[in-house]
Predict the 3D structure of the following.
Amino acid sequence: MAPAGVGFDIGCGNKAVRTNLTRADVSGRLAPLADEMYAQLAFGVGQANKTRVEDALFDDPLWQTSPFLRASGDLKATARAQLGSIGAGNHYVNVFADEEERIWVGVHFGSRSLGHAIASHFMKQAGDKPNAADAAPKTLPVNSALGRDYIACMQLAGRYAYAGRDWACDRVVEILGGEIVDEVHNHHNFAWHEEHGGQNRWVVRKGATPAFPGQRGFVGASMGGVSVILQGVDSAQSRGLYYSTVHGAGRVMSRSAAAGRRRRVKRQATRKDGRVVNVTEWVQSGGQVDFPAVQKELARQGIILRGGGADEAPEVYKDLDKVLEAHAGTVEVLHRLRPLIVCMAA
C-alpha cells in the first residue's frame, strides 16, 4: 500500500444531486441564494463547520483500536468540528442547470484535517520524504500491522469525506427550497481492492475515479466551464485504465504563476503622532491572471461567484471537453451542467 500514492486529501470526491427545481424556480434570486450558501457553509484552510454535524462514524471502534488514531490526541475533536466544511484550493459548492434547465447542486472536497493527518503519519512511517513530489511513493506491506492500520484509517477518512459531502448537498438543496431526486457520488485519492483480469489487485487512484461500465460520475470543470455527469463504458481502453477516469479538467497553470507570489516587504511609516516606525506588509506580485477581469466576465455570463481567486480562474484549467475527447471510448457524457452559482474559499 502506498500512502503517498493516495495522497493527503484521502477520499476527496465529487457529489452532484439533481433537484426537483428548474431554472425558472431560482431565476431572479441567484445572488441572495449565493449569499445564503456562502454564509451557512464554511470555506477556507482549517475552518470548522458553522453547523455541528453528527455522524455514526465517530462511534466507530477504530478510534480506539487503531494505534495511530488512539495516539492522535485531539484529531477526533478536530474532525468532528470540521465535518461538512469545504476547505480551500479547488474545492467548491456549485449550483448548475442542465440541458433541460433542471437544477443540480455539485460539490468537491474531501477529508479535511483527518485525511491530512492520516496521510502525513503513514507517509512518514513508509519512509516518504516531505515534499518529494517526483519520488516514487514508498509502500507498506498490506498484511503488516502498519499496512492494516493505514488501510483501516484510509477507509474511515473516506467515510468521513462522504458524510461531509452528503451534508453539504442536503444543506444547499434546503437553502434552494427543493428536494433531491437523484444523486451521483464518486471519489478519488483512494485505494480499492478490485478484480481485474481474473486477479485481485489494489488499485490506487490519485486524482482519478472509478468508471466501471454503467457507473456514473460527476466531473467538474473550472468556475466558468461546463461540468458533466458521465458513465463508464466497457472497452479495451477502459480495461487498460482499470476502469478509471478523470475527476476534473486538470490545470495548465500553477497557482503561483496564476496568482503570483506573496512576499514580506519592510518599509517605514509615519504615525499620527509623527513617529516613524518600521512596518512589515504582505505584497502579492507577478500573477498572470487579472482576477477582477475574470470576475467581470463571469458576471457577464450570469455566473454568481462568491470567493475564488486568480489561482482558480478558468484560464488556469484545461478545456474539459477536450480532456474527455482524449478519453473517448471509455466514458460517455449523460448531462452537461452550466454553472449558475460558484462558491469557493476566497
